[in-house]
């Protein structure tokens, strides 16, 4: 046997790497380049959807259909189980499920978005952010298909369309921004530690029940209200749900969303600057 | 104008064992002060390229030779910008096109045509520009009707034809090929050779690795010999191939 490499064993834990200005500059460049090369992630994201539904008759409108079935069956079932007024509960549940679907799917898929793009990453020099944007683009398109299932409810329950409805687009953008920032963080950690993906998956499942999607916070005794107040998912859900229902945004939600967004940007900048050039070796 | 300049470039990369890849195991070892699972976060660092100095200019066609694990693929990935040097400086000027592994960056579920368009966009072209070249690329592949079928139904040779046709049709200034030219049937190899020769004439840089010294002798004017991550020879093709044969690195 020939020894092929010069091998030295080192203990990585003792190693400390400082983040320099050039790390930040390269990380920043990565993000900027990803936006410049929008054709790439739009194409890849679009193709993901096309390939998934290629052999089906309805195409991506399967999404709309299955979302409609979920919303309408759950609306009736839980409306009666919780003995809620369907007039308010039905739209509440529908907007909750729609928004939750976007956020949860994106976070789960973010975790292995670098791992799944290995074939591209090892072949062509592309900004890493491209693969996050691809995932977001895909899930936003899916969200837009899903929203179609909500339209009949507007007429059935006379959901108001007013000035607050204008906030739908900025709210969606803000959610996508946060998915990008936190999704990138999850993608980096998920590439380094391969057991993260199943952990995130089960956390998301638990969060579904802890977050007011199917139930209303008003059902909760006062002393447990903190569980909603400090739940970031509850606020991001509100951010899109309230404009969809033609309601004003609560100030609580705005503050929480602002804080979480700033934290996310800081976390992302630090981690991405430090880890960006290492991601390839973790694949 | 294409140019590549490597100035004492070193690449070291970590190879993780399964324990180091698990967050759970890392946390356990952390909470027990690292004594329970000794070695759980010991990572082997491999010096894949060691202090490499290379200067490539227009019309250079370079053959990479060396035994398995000598660092050929690492060097190609470094030139492609996929690996970043851990030490030293590197500058690469020119639009790069690559075929670096047998997955070729093709999407197995998409058709041949879709893959052509996708690869073009990945290389920074607009859909219009690629559509304008589509017929020419399709003709070069000689795949005919198969181009409408998903790539997963292709044989390896067919995939190589497709990938090679795309990356060479869109006029790369720097073309990097890893063990590609040897694949495919004799007819295609001949065609590929003509196309590469033309590319090289048009003042582009081509770097290709191959275990076949014949292919390198026919296509290249320079040779890089790598051994255990170190540059053993960089210079004239004939001289290098002779040296390689004699020493059998």
Q: Could you describe the 3D structure shown?
A:
The complex is a heterodimer of chains A (283) and B (249). Chain A contains 14 helices and one strand. With 283 residues, chain A is an all-alpha fold. Chain A has one domain (19-282). Mean pLDDT of chain A is 88; it is low at 1-16. Chain B folds into two domains: 3-94 and 208-247, P-loop containing nucleotide triphosphate hydrolases (Rossmann fold), CATH 3.40.50.300; 99-203, P-loop containing nucleotide triphosphate hydrolases (Rossmann fold). Chain B contains eight helices and nine strands. Chain B has helices at residues 23-31, 72-79, 112-122, 127-141, 156-169, 186-201, 213-219, 237-247, and strands spanning 3-15, 42-56, 61-65, 87-93, 96-99, 174-178, 205-209, 222-227, 230-236. Chain B has a six-stranded mixed β-sheet, with helices on both faces. The chains are: A mainly alpha (283), B alpha/beta (249). The interface between A and B is large, with 40 and 51 residues.
Q: What are the salient characteristics of this protein?
A:
heterodimer; A: 283 residues; mainly alpha; B: 249 residues; Rossmann fold; three-stranded antiparallel β-sheet
Write a short abstract of this structure.
The complex is a heterodimer of chains A (283) and B (249). Chain A is mainly alpha-helical and 283 residues long. Chain A contains 14 helices and one strand; from the N terminus they run E-H-H-H-H-H-H-H-H-H-H-H-H-H-H.
Q: Most extensive interface: pair and counts?
A: A-B, 40 and 51 residues
Instruction: Please tally the helical runs of chain B, counting DSSP H or I stretches of 4 or more residues.
Output: 8
The CATH class of the largest domain in chain B is: Alpha Beta
- Give the number of helices of chain A: 14
Q: For the residues shown, what is the average pLDDT of chain B?
A: 82
Q: What is the succession of H and E elements of chain B? A: EHEEHEEHHHEHEHEEH
Percent of residues in helices of chain B comes to: 25-40%
Distance, first to last CA of chain B: 34 Å
Detail the poorly predicted runs of chain B: 33-40
Q: What is the structural class of chain B?
A: alpha/beta
CATH architecture of the largest domain in chain B: 3-Layer(aba) Sandwich
């Amino acid at each position: 046997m020939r020894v092929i490499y010069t091998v030295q064993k080192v203990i990585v834990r003792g190693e400390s790497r400082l983040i320099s200005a050039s790390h930040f500059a390269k990380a920043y460049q990565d993000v900027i380049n990803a936006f410049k090369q929008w054709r790439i992630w739009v194409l890849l994201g679009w193709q993901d959807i096309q390939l998934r539904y290629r052999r089906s008759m309805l195409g991506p409108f399967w999404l709309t259909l299955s979302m409609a079935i979920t919303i309408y069956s759950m609306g009736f079932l839980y409306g009666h189980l919780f003995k809620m007024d369907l007039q308010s509960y039905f739209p509440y549940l529908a907007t909750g499920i729609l928004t939750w679907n976007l956020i949860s799917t994106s976070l789960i898929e973010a975790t292995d978005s670098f791992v799944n793009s290995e074939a591209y990453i090892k072949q062509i020099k592309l900004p890493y952010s491209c693969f996050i944007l691809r995932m977001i683009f895909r899930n936003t398109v899916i969200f837009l298909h899903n929203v179609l299932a909500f339209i009949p409810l507007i007429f059935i329950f006379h959901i108001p369309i007013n000035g607050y409805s204008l906030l739908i687009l900025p709210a969606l953008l803000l959610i996508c921004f946060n998915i990008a920032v936190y999704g990138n963080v999850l993608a980096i950690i998920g590439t380094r530690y391969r057991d993260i993906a199943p952990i995130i998956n089960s956390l998301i499942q638990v969060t579904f029940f802890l977050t007011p999607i199917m139930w209303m916070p008003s059902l909760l005794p006062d002393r447990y209200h903190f569980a909603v107040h400090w739940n970031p998912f509850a606020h991001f859900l509100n951010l899109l749900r309230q404009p969809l229902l033609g309601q004003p945004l609560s100030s609580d939600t705005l503050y929480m969303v602002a804080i979480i967004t700033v934290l996310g940007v800081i976390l992302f900048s630090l981690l991405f600057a430090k880890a960006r050039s290492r991601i390839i070796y973790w694949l | 104008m294409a140019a590549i300049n490597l100035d004492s470039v070193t690449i070291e990369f970590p190879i993780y064992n399964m324990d180091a890849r698990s967050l759970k195991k890392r946390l356990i070892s952390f909470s027990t002060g690292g004594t329970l699972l000794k070695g759980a976060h010991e990572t082997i660092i491999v010096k894949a390229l060691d202090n490499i100095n290379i200067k490539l200019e227009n019309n250079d066609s370079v053959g990479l030779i060396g035994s398995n694990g000598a660092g050929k693929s690492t060097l190609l990935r470094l030139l492609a910008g996929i690996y970043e040097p851990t030490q030293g400086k590197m500058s690469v000027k020119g639009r790069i096109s690559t075929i670096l592994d047998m997955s070729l960056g093709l999407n197995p579920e998409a058709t041949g045509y879709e893959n052509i368009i996708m690869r073009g966009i990945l290389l920074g072209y607009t859909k219009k520009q690629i559509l304008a070249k589509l017929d020419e690329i399709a003709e070069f592949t000689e795949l005919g009707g198969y181009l409408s079928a998903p790539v997963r139904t292709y044989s390896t040779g067919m995939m190589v034809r497709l990938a090679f046709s795309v990356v060479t049709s869109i006029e790369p200034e720097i073309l990097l090929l890893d063990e590609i030219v040897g694949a495919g049937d004799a007819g295609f190899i001949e065609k590929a050779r003509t196309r590469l020769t033309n590319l090289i004439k048009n003042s582009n840089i081509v770097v290709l690795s191959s275990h076949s010294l014949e292919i390198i002798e026919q296509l290249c004017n320079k040779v890089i010999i790598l051994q255990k991550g170190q540059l053993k020879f960089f210079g004239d093709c004939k001289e290098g191939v002779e040296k390689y044969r004699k020493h059998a690195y």
